[in-house]
Write a structure and sequence with these properties.
alpha/beta; 5 strands; single chain; globular
């Protein structure tokens, strides 16, 4: 499910089936690594959206968090809100190491250099990342 009006109307009534939230988190560096930050953000967004399509009706893809230095206070507050709402599995999708978030599943996606690859290669690499992320989600579900 996406974080939109139509999907959120159905979310509360289906929490027994929709127990997982994916939170995309990107670190944006406007000084030295802008192109890398862009590639990371685009990769995270594509992996998140394609994974949501595969698991439609089983998970919620939340809006992305964009930070400049991974202040986790806001992310931790959002995680708590999701848990209070009834979602039991919270997975953070990122391309960087995130510290100070305890007991949450964190999946680190490989950054794909979007500008340097042809469309077929990008699609293949993104599909590989989606497959790996889907396996991670299934392992998370099987832990419970």
């Amino acid at each position: 499910m996406l974080f939109n009006h139509a999907d959120l109307k159905d979310l509360k009534n289906n929490l027994e089936y929709i127990d997982t939230a994916i939170i995309p988190v990107s670190n944006i560096d406007m000084t030295n690594q802008l192109i890398t930050s862009c590639d990371q953000s685009e990769t995270i967004q594509l992996v998140g959206m394609l994974t949501e399509k595969q698991f439609k009706g089983r998970l919620l893809l939340t809006p992305a968090f964009f930070t400049s230095d991974f202040h986790t206070k806001h992310i931790q507050s959002f995680i708590q809100s999701l848990k209070e709402y009834g979602l039991t599995n919270i997975i953070i999708l990122t391309s960087d190491k995130i510290e100070n978030i305890e007991t949450e599943e964190i999946y680190t996606v490989n950054t794909i250099p979007m500008a340097d690859l042809d469309e077929e290669m990008k699609r293949t690499l993104i599909e590989d990342e989606v497959k790996n992320f889907m396996k991670f989600i299934i392992k998370t579900w099987n832990k419970k």
